[in-house]
Design a protein that fits this description.
Organism: Actinophytocola glycyrrhizae
Structural class: mainly alpha
Number of domains: 1
Enzyme class: oxidoreductase
Order of helices and strands: HHHHHHHHHHHHHHHHHHH
Pfam family, one: MPAB_Lcp_cat
InterPro entries: Lcp-like, MPAB/Lcp_cat_dom
Radius of gyration: 20 Å
EC number: 1.-.-.-
Distance between the termini: 36 Å
């Protein structure tokens, strides 16, 4: 069992390896040059670029391997679970996990200071792309793209810490370190433990073995993100206990959380054109998240759609139970997930022409099953992970 006092102390801990890199780059004015080089550093098996400052090269080498204790068989099982239910995972991430993140006042304030309150597409697209890279067939191996994604994420978090702590708008003694390791643990539990529970609230069947393996991938990823491994529960049962003791007790109302949620709901209302379906997204959110959280974040009520959502989850559960025996039930389930993920692909970039990049192996498996929300498989040999330019954050930290 994780010592809760240890996790509480992480409120004041950043990421020493990444923080040292950002301190060096900002002091020497080399942030822009490093951004240009790392923009092309996307695959696990790419050699570390030569034309980087020594501090960056040292960091990339030190953080370039998964922990020695990683069990690749469990990673493979989690991949198979994601092949079957990835679109449903994406739906819960979109409709519930992001809202639960906004229910945490401190991280919401960090988002407000870095991205602004009206850019939900940025956070959603980054999170979705991260999960897609994490759930690829060989995510940690030579065929994946997760390692550079993790390394860049750590640098972005370090940049946020650097800029916010020097902005005069953050009191470290009172609020802890921005993007602290405690908040990282909280986000990991929201994206793993709470996503599985959210799927079950929607009537989607997830076995305990599948839930354990899905959490395990997040635990490995958390260790690579710099979270002290002793703060990462070893079992799903312990993770649930920590989620109750740490994350759910941190929930509460905040002006930033309310505004972030409102903009997120507005983004997803675009999935359903016209007025007929107004309120359906809010109803889905209220079906998945805790009622107090929905009230704190002022998620609108819609009695008709909330009743429909409750009925829909019962229907979905019945379809799940019939899935092995009914091709029609399977098709309906997959089509529902395709609509959600396909819709998010279209709206995440707020009208831009770019889309999420689904790893080639996932795209091929989904396409073979008649389900691929982002189009046909890529050309053979195309292993790009995210070729689009990244927009600059509002507060100006490096993008990497």
């Amino acid at each position: 069992m994780v010592d809760i006092s240890l996790v509480e102390a992480l409120k004041f801990q950043g990421d020493p390896l990444a923080d040292a890199v950002i301190a060096d780059l900002t002091a020497t004015g080399r942030v822009g040059a490093v951004n240009e080089v790392l923009a092309h550093f996307r695959a696990n098996d790419q050699p570390v670029p030569e034309d980087l400052p020594e501090s960056v090269r040292t960091y990339l080498v030190a953080t370039g391997n998964p922990p020695e204790w990683v069990d690749l068989d469990r990673i493979t099982r989690a991949y198979e679970f994601f092949v079957d239910d990835g679109v449903h995972v994406a739906a819960v991430l979109s409709f519930a996990a992001m809202v639960n993140c906004y229910a945490q006042p401190r991280p919401s304030r960090v988002l407000a200071l870095t991205h602004g309150l009206n850019q939900p597409h940025r956070r959603l697209s980054e999170t979705s792309q991260f999960v897609m890279n994490m759930m690829g067939c060989d995510a940690f191996g030579s065929g994946g793209a997760l390692v550079p994604t993790i390394q860049k994420t750590r640098l972005i978090h370090a940049a946020v810490r650097h800029f916010i702590t020097r902005s005069g708008k953050w009191d470290v003694r009172a609020d802890g370190v921005p993007v602290c390791q405690q908040d990282m643990v909280g986000s990991l539990l929201i994206f793993s433990v709470q996503v599985v529970e959210g799927m079950r609230r929607l009537g989607i069947s997830v076995t305990e073995a599948e839930a354990e393996d899905y959490y395990y991938v997040w635990r490995v990823t958390g260790a690579m993100l710099g979270i002290p491994v002793q703060a990462l529960p070893e079992t799903l049962t312990e993770a649930r206990e920590l989620n109750s003791a740490l994350v759910e007790t941190s929930y509460g109302p905040s002006p930033e959380g309310v505004q972030l949620t409102a903009h997120l709901l507005g983004l997803y209302e675009k999935l359903f054109p016209g007025k007929m379906f107004d309120g359906i997204v809010a109803a889905l959110v209220r079906q998945i998240v805790d009622e107090r959280v929905a009230d704190w974040l002022q998620v609108p009520h819609s009695r008709g759609w909330q009743r429909a959502a409750r009925i829909g989850t019962r229907v979905l559960g019945a379809l799940e139970r019939a899935e092995d025996d009914s091709a029609i039930a399977t098709k309906i389930l997959d089509r529902a997930g395709e609509l959600l993920l396909g819709g998010s692909v279209r709206t995440l970039t707020d009208g831009q022409s770019t889309t999420l990049n689904i790893p080639a192996d996932l795209r091929e498996r989904w396409h073979a099953n008649g389900l691929c929300p982002a189009g046909p498989p890529p050309v053979q040999g195309d292993r790009r992970t995210d070729a689009r330019p990244r927009p600059e954050p509002v507060a100006g930290p490096p993008t990497f």
